[in-house]
């Protein structure tokens, strides 16, 4: 696993599994990005706002929004905080809608992946794929510093 391409000064981040429920990790991970003033888009199928930020209902809409709001971005990195079936579905949407060239990295939070999910991500050619049990809440700051964010 190489994390060097996950973070970038011109990157936009999407949090798939962001939630308005303050007790859940999807909320905490989304808030992690906000607290660091990183451009981040929450992805949730039904919530309209999380921490006063408008949500996108799916990854295609999040990517479209990222390109509209941050036209000089160098791509999208995605944090997944979803069950493996949902993670796999989102990756399949990326492939079906031909969005894979815009994805520069994925970070699967613990519990958001299985071997099938990792296989789909590798098939898409996404690098880096963070899937070693690292949680962005624990290791994100150290990785972002190493990436010269």
Automatic annotation (TrEMBL):
Protein name, as recorded: CoA-binding domain-containing protein
Domain of life assignment: Eukaryota
Domain CoA-binding: 11-140
High-level lineage: Eukaryota, Fungi, Dikarya, Ascomycota, Saccharomycotina
Protein's organism: Wickerhamomyces ciferrii (strain ATCC 14091 / BCRC 22168 / CBS 111 / JCM 3599 / NBRC 0793 / NRRL Y-1031 F-60-10)
Signal peptide: none
PANTHER family in UniProt: COA-BINDING DOMAIN-CONTAINING PROTEIN, CYTOPLASMIC PROTEIN-RELATED
Short name of any one Pfam family annotated for the protein: CoA_binding_2
């Amino acid at each position: 696993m190489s994390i060097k391409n996950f973070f970038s000064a011109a990157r936009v981040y999407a949090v798939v599994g962001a939630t308005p429920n303050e007790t859940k990790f999807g909320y905490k991970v989304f808030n992690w990005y906000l607290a660091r003033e990183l451009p981040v888009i929450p992805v949730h199928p039904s919530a309209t706002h999380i921490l006063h930020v408008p949500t996108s209902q799916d990854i295609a809409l999040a990517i479209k929004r990222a390109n509209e709001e941050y036209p000089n971005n160098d791509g999208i990195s995605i944090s997944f905080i979803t069950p493996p079936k949902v993670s796999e579905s989102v990756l399949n949407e990326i492939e079906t809608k031909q969005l894979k060239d815009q994805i520069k990295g994925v970070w699967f939070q613990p519990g958001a992946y299985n071997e099938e999910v990792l296989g789909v991500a590798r098939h898409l050619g996404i690098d880096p794929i963070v899937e070693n049990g690292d949680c962005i809440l624990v290791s994100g700051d150290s990785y972002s510093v190493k990436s010269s964010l």
